[in-house]
Structure formats: C-alpha cells, structure tokens
Amino acid sequence: MDNANLYSDTINIHSTTERVEFNYDYAKADDLRRDSNALSKVEIKLSCTDLPNTDETSKSDPRVIVYFQERKFQNNQVSTNWVKIDSTETVKDNLNPEYAKSFIFDYYFEYIQNLRFVVLDMNEDAVNLEDNDYLGYVEESINGIISAAKDNKCSFKLKGDIPVGTEFKKNSNAGTKGTLNIRIEILKDNNKYALMDISGRNLDKKDLLGKSDPYFIIYKKGLDNQWVKVYHSTVIMKTLNPDWTKIYIPLLQLNSGDDKRMLKWEVWDWDKDTPPDYIGGFEATFEEIQTKKEYELINDKKVKTKGSKCKNSGVLMFNRIIIRENQSFSSFTLGGTEFEVDFAIDFTQSNGEPQEKTSLHYINPNKDPLISIL
To answer: What is the set of domains in the chain, with CATH numbers?
Structure first.
C-alpha cells in the first residue's frame, strides 16, 4: 500500500522514492546562545526478520513508519511530541523484508534524538494508517543505535504493546516474534546526485508466453563487506530492450559519497504470481561506470549449465550520467555571492517604554527560546 505517505500527518523533508533526509531545527528547543553544529550525517537503513504473519492466504506486506521525538517549549516547560517523518516502501508477501529506502539525519552528539519505528502489515482497503495490522515497534535514540551497532549493524526485538499517543489496534500477533534490523553509517558531506539514463539490450527471455518484465536493483558494499540494497527500479513490461530514463540517485545513497566503493547491479524478470527470475548482473564502482558505460550481464547458473557456449544474458548500458549538486544557501555565499544588509532602528517616542506590555518595543522577561533570541 504505497499511499501511506499521503496520510495528512506525514512530514516529508527532502523526500524521494528511495531516500528521506530529515533535520530537526534545534534552535526551537534549546538556548540559542549555545553553539550546536551537526557532528555528521548518518544514514539508517532498515530490514526485518521473522515477522509475524497476519494474512490468511498469503504472507504479510510489511512497511516501517518512522517517527522523530520533537521538543517544544511552552509556558517555561519543555514538552515532547512524536512527529511522523515518512516510511519505507511496502514489501509484498515477505516476512523478512529488506528496504531500499534510507533515512538520513543530521547527528548532534549533544542531543538525545529519539526515533520510533512502527512495523505494519499494510492492507489494500485501509483508509487510515491505524487501519493496517499492527506488528510491533522499537524506540531508540540515534546515539543508542550507534552505541549498540557492531560492524555498523544492530537488531532490536519488536515490542507488542501500543506506543503511547497512537491509535494502532492491538493485535494478538504483535510482539510475539520479529526483529527490526538497523544498519547505520556515518556519511561524508556530499550534496551531489546522479541523473542517469540506463537501458538493457538483448536480455534473456524468461517468460514462456511473452517477453521478460525487467527491473534492476543496485547494492553497495557495506563496511562489513556485505551487500546493502540502495535502489530498486521500476518494472518495464514485456520487453527484452528496456529503457530506464531520468534515474535520480543521491550519491550519499548510492555509494556513501565514495565513487570507488564497489556496487553490484542485478537485472531481474518480474512475475506476478511467482518469485522473480534472475537474468544477470555485474560488479563495478561508480567511477568505473562513468568510464566504461556498458557491461555484460552474467548469470553464473546459466554459465555453469551451458559452459563456453554462454556469452552473456544481455547488456546493461549507461547512456547518460550527469553529476549535479543541490545548492544550499551556504553554497552561494561560499561561491562568492555577496549580500548587503541595511538595519534601521525606530526610536519614535510614541512606541512606548520597553518595560510596558503595550509598547512596540516591549522586552518580555519570561522569554520563550523557541521564538526569541534576545
């Protein structure tokens, strides 16, 4: 059920199909005189294992909803509120889903940045998010995830109770089993992204009554030398010569900002009622792809069967690769843009004394740090 992001209380910040970048403005929650620079950006990728099954005729269709604990200052008191950031994609009929979508946060070591991960079995007829089957949740801080991670990975057992402040329905299967796996990696600061046009040529025919329905998946090699899924393309129906155009992938997502990091590309044939068929793949860094731009798809199983008679299972071609950069305000100033600012202070006596509440220059002694810097 891919319309979950359309629910009204979802907050999308720099969100794409495969990546969500979220940064909470800590100027709202603390003394503005305090210097709080982000230590770094961290990428969080999610997967689950051994989820409970709530469907009678098939397996669950799991999706993870991600929340952030927001701080608010009201009446000289700090209160908290859970804000829904976004969610992963839905993985159909799978109790051990691995999600391509990643979540990138600015990590401040001096703050407690609490996250909540709610796992749902998505239902096609659900109108509200709470109408889906609840499987469990995990709450943990970014600091806690970093501390718990070994080789950049950690796991947490799903809790079966309902998170405070939510309206999810109690499910007898919730919390009985299931684990949320988190992979966290500190990223290099990189605002660049790749725009690519990719095509396949002469792919193997996998369907008996028609042509293949190809799609491709990209994996990057993690710091633990394991493959991590970073992108899942659309399916192009009934063709052996597919064209995927205008592929947008941030480099932080693709290779953690390192063009020399090894990538694995796999091309598959989608099937509606059966598992997908592997067509072929290859391994190459993004640096190599920008130079060579054409790679044979190798299917080891096919090579083993046909031996020297098997050349390849098709070709994947990179017809266009453009590297661009998302510009921030600081990018303009660092690039030489100059700004001129004029300040004026109105000392008109009719504005009143600063000590009086009716004055236009009134100074409130009980300042709210969310809105005042004086």
So the answer is: 4-187 (2.60.40.150), 192-325 (2.60.40.150)
Determine the distance from the C-alpha atom of residue 76 to the mean position of all C-alpha atoms in its chain, rounded to a whole number.
35
| pLDDT tens digits for range 102-160 | 999 988 877 889 999 999 999 888 888 988 999 999 999 998 998 888 888 999 999 99
pLDDT over 70, % of the chain: 82
Q: Give the pLDDT band (50/70/90) at residue 372.
A: very low
Closest CA to 116 of 94, 96, 140, 95: 140
Query: How many Å apart are CA 155 and CA 159, to the nearest integer?
Result: 13
Bridge-partner residues for 136, per DSSP? 119
Element containing residue 333 per DSSP (H, E): helix 329-334
Q: Which amino acid is at 141?
A: S
Specify the pTM.
Answer: 0.62
Quickly count: other Cβ atoms within 10 Å of residue 92's Cβ: 13
* 368, 79 Cβ separation under 8 angstroms: no
